[in-house]
Fold each of these.
Amino acid sequence: MTLIASIQKISKNYHQGGKKVEVLYQLSLQVKKGESVAILGQSGSGKSTFLSLLAGLDQPDFGTISIVDTDLTQMKQEELARFRSKNLGIVFQQYHLMSNLTALENVSLPLELQRRKEAEKQARIALNQVGLSHRLSHLPAELSGGECQRVAIARAIVTKPGLILADEPSGNLDGKTGHEVMDLLFTLCKEQEQTLILVTHNQELSKLCDRCLHLREGRLFAHKT
Amino acid sequence: MNFAFKHAWREIRNNRAFCLFYLVNLSLGLLGFITIDSFKRSVNQQVSLESQKLLGADLALRTRREFSTEELEKTKNLLPEETLSVEAVDFFSMVAGPTGRSRLVKVVAMAPGFPFHGSFDLNLKGKVTKFDDLLLHQKPVAWIYPELRNQLDLDLGDQITLGKSKFRISDIVKEDAGLQFQPAEFAPKVFISHNFLKETALLQEGNTAFRNQLYKLPSGINAQSFAEKIGKTINSPDIRVYSHQRAGHRAGRLLRYLSDFLALVSLVALFLACLGSGYLFHGFLTRKVKDLAILISLGASPKLALFTYVLQISILGAVAVIPPVLICFIALPLAENLLEEFLPFQVDAGLTIPSVVLTIGVAILSGFLLALPSLRKIRELKPAELFRESMYSTKSSTLKTILWLVPGLLGFWLLCITQADSWKLGNLFFLTFAVSGMVVYILGSFALMAIERIFRKSPLPLRLASRSLSRNRNSSITSLLALGLGVLLLNLIPQFQYSLESEINLQDPESKIPQLFLFDIQEEHLTPLTKTLQFQGRPLDNVTPWIRGRLLSVKGLPFASMDRMDREFDNPDEQRRNAFRNRTFNLSYREKLRESEEIVRGRMVNTSYDANGSQPAEISVEQKYAESLGVDLGDQITIEISGVPITAEVVNIRRVRWTSFQPNFFVQMQPGVLEQAPKTFIGTIENLSVEEKQAIQDLLVQKFPTISILDVERTGEKILQVVGQMTWALQVMAILSIVVGLIILHTISREKARRQRQEINLQKILGASFSDLKNLVRLEFGALGFFSAILGVSLSTGASLVLSHYIFDRVWNFNWQLPIIMITGVTLVSCITAEIATRKVLGEKPIQLFKDD
């Protein structure tokens, strides 16, 4: 199978209170197309940093990140934005929907950024896929947590990106809703042959993935059950 | 680009409250700006269109003496052959009606052919456009202004006495043309023919009549360039050369000064509006930080995300121009009647296209420039924060924020310069404004620090209110700035008016202002006049000689005026100063100072002069005149009096309180020098009742027809009327600033309540009632309004004191009623505004606390 993501020896440090904090150290990972990878780790282990590097929202101090054969570390802001728009879908723990936009507007936003025609039509299809065709004109404040996360998933898949990055998608939801949302995410990724990198601390969820890795002391280790 | 437009529009549509307040705020600020700018442009446009009619010619020479044949010949040789010329004389004189009642009038003696341009609109004859063959030039008849008809109870066919001649009234003038150099006349006009002027015997030695030589150039010739050439060739400082453009410029100057000041005051409202809009946009962007990060995480570049919001404020800026344009379009034409005192003709004021374009530019740019510090924060945004539990906003240094405000301040400075039409005035205004802003900021910061300490152990509501004020420093300071500057303006302008009214207190029996001011008293008339008045029991006071002098040299250098004349046309500052310098001037001599005078530097002049000695004569020079000439103690100037040059040394610099209406002069020579020079006298009569004043005036006109009498009360009233109208116009602009300030307060309290929504609901859960919270808001914003008003009033009082010292000859009186009304009013209105703004949040059910994430 072809590789969709190739991360080579990346390191990331932060400076806090005059001290250097090593978050990621020579971390490497290769992910195949259509694969689902769970990344487990304790709070502060660097999971979020790792995801923001994969999303091209931050740059590593050392190493290379190659997604769909494109080295993100060599790209400029504008190029990264275009790349993100085309190839990545992101699902956040706090949903991060635009508070003043309706569900439909939130989902059509990435398509509009790509100047795609029939953005609204595509967004309706995506919302239908997540079971929210009856909540199109509702604002995020008028939706439940589970519904918000469904909208966020629809927004992540609507452009049919090759890689979905999900950061604790069920972290803010109750058990049942969390499961429903995760099932939906896995199903959609499978249906559309999308690669999923899921960051979670929920071991149950990680078992649904093809591969499970543990982030510890800045490096990834194969997870032992 | 398409996405940016779409998203910007969506943001506008989905944030209606923000957009509405942004628009209202900016629209109010732009309203004053566009109104005044359009008005200024209308006036300038009309003055330039009417300038030939105002002068009655293309070019004119004007002086207070007879032109020499050589001067007229030189001028003729410079002008094209086909040029036509005509002469006219204008002067103030007394006129008596058939009943013996008299008035001061302005006599215009016109030769056949005057004026070349414009027309007269007469009651009987209708519109007159040809002036060669009029009955006026064949018989001793006069055309008079309608107000003289009422004042002297005249009718057509009645006879009036002018000097030693009688003229029959043949028509009433509704509209005239020519020799209109003044914005407004202090006396009604009487038109007679130049052919009958000599018989009046009014033009005697030392009189103040203006002789005018008017020229009509062949069409298509630029009068201005000829005016400059003539000025240089004649090279006589006491002859003024007017092109019609310059005459129009001069006639419109009072209104231009007023509109320049109005423009500056309107800029305060605009600045405050921008401050409010900037504050609103900052709050809006702060709320949008997360949305921006989301947008970037979805694939928008930071530039695109930034552009979306720049576009949004640009669209809002452009939309904000619509209401002021509409209001200005409807209201501006109504203003023409209100300002008729300021121009010799009616202004057809209306909205102008350049003003609309400029306003759109200002609206879009101002929003953008003031949003720069907030937009900069977007650039520093880290979308990776989205992966963390809560997004924190990056704190930037105050210095950086101020640096990002510099382009906005530069833009404001540019507007000040262009709107004031004067480098000096624009800079002075900008500096005053910036210093006031800084003082409010510094004092406000100290006050906020102090109140938290002062009320640390006070009852809970006071403690909470003071904490809220001091811990939300930016919003508190913005409110203080907005309201404080508004109050400053609102209090400053009437404070000047009050000072001036107190000074020219015409009703005060203790007032030392004379009732009648007599001038053009010939030397031979002085003794009989004094005796006549003595006999009437009303002595002639302040009898002072009046001599015309011409500056020949200053500090040994020949007094050349020509190079200044070129510059005069462009720069009002220079124009004012040159008008002061170029003029041949009046001077006098006396042994002691009057109470309206004070020596600032130097000593009193010696009371005796040795004509055979080698020492120059001693002179005293008025402070501002000395400044304009650039002379100080010990400097020498040479003055020509009736062809005799006299060199004199400045021994003192004198301050004169001109509003005393006492006979005062720019230059006073020591006694013993000018006694033999040809002169007239001026004098005053005090303590007259209205009836006595009229009776004395009529008697004097009958016995001494060449003496002119100025009714000081009438003149004072006219001055106060003009000042009153100016104050009214400036007050309207100042009120606009206060309204903008209150909108800002509304915005701030609304924003604050929205931000503190959770705390407010928490307080309710903890037991605070609706009225408790309402009182807290009243207390907090009432205190803010109170402090702003105190600051504004204190600053305006200080500023009026300082400005009156430098501009109005120390005329300053404190009006305590206005500040009290202002402080009470602003405090109350602030409470009400904040209450309205926070009502929704305060009235919310505390259950919202559980619903919010």
Amino acid sequence: MRERDVPQEGNVTLAGHRKAVYAVGEDGRLKIVASRGWEVEETVTRQAVEELERLAREARERALDGTGSTLEYHMYRARMDVPLLSQTTGLWRWRVKRHLRPGAFERLPGAIKRRYAEAMGIPVEALEKLD
Amino acid sequence: MQQRAMQPQDATTKQHGSFTHAHAAHCESGVMASLVRHYGFPFTEAMAFGLSSALCFAYLPFVRINGLPLIAFRMWPKSIIQGLEKGLGLGMRFETFRSPERGMARLDELLEEGKLVGLQTSVFWLPYFPSDLRFHFNAHNVLVCAREGDEYVISDPVAEMLVRCARADLQKARFAKGMLAPKGLLYYPTRKPVAPDWARVGRRAIAKTCHVMLHSPLPIIGVRGIRMLAKRVERLPVDGNGGAARMYMGNIVRMQEEVGTGGAGFRFLYASFLQELAALAGHGALEGFASRLVDIGDRWREFAVAAARQIRRRDPLAPPALAAQLRGIADHEESFFRDLRRAQQAWRC
């Protein structure tokens, strides 16, 4: 990649930041050039973010009609999935899966709810609600 | 520290006391280059990356992130720190902690002594990161310059300027759990680095990279790993709306360009190392290799463009075409590393 080919496409996922990339300058030497972003990166990052947003939206609907727990919604909001949430809380995967059901989640003792809230970096009260 | 009073501090400076922040393409090599520069002699990110033989390719189907495999274009985390340790005699010390409180107290203590401290963190908990990029990636390296009240002044290599981070956030980032959990890891050098015999350490580093890329015993590492990934891409299902195939392709490109596992970028970084080594060790033969590797990096970028076009439905979904592109890259990398290996063996110093 030559210096003049370094993409400066204003990638929204960088939120105004610039990232350092290496490119060949006029003198044939490689050097660091600050890039405003590349459309390709924007495409794939947005794809991943939108997938998680879609999962969160679906979980929210399930929580509203009472077929899912608020935990599932907050899990996707925190960009997690069941294996990751299980690792960060230290709870077995099958338990986390069980807690995605509304009844099982509501009956949980405060200590377990706190563990979930802590893993996601939100207060316990927020975990029980949809925002 | 009296130096602190000399410099006005705000978010748009690169200078903190006698430390100068530098923007880098990759976190770990950036942190190590900054450390060597601060305590020793002029040193670049590319040299840190190349001398530690960090270039690699690994397709790890059994490591799943949000259900998709890990694809890395460099060696495992910490290998750059450890790789430089031997060549430069840094005497790196690593410390991990069970208790977050003790981990934070130890960080404060080292900063109080005026040391620069490297940390392993999770990007998800670093508030200065753009929100779209805050995924649960636990092996992001940053360098802490100082504590100021409830805030830390941080040199994050992928940020253009010095940044600030609140204590509570930094604690969360250092003690994130999950895969590659940092466990509060901090590291610092105990000796002043000395400039090595560039030809000797350079030759050795090149030999190691060639070996990893060509002769790994595992079919998922090196050039064979690229071919393995090609095989997997070829078989992606295109039935239905092809959503799964698009997610899989997006994952490859994201691993390649976005999340610090770097694809094309690391090929350019290594090419820069070859150029610098050619000049430092007075071995001009490496120059030609640098430009060949730049071409290979461009091929990785073309692959990313083709994949992105299919993801955005500008081109029809065609996994076999992408697989063919990957195989082409594998062939080029194979002949590149074979020739580099030969040149390395012929290089007498």
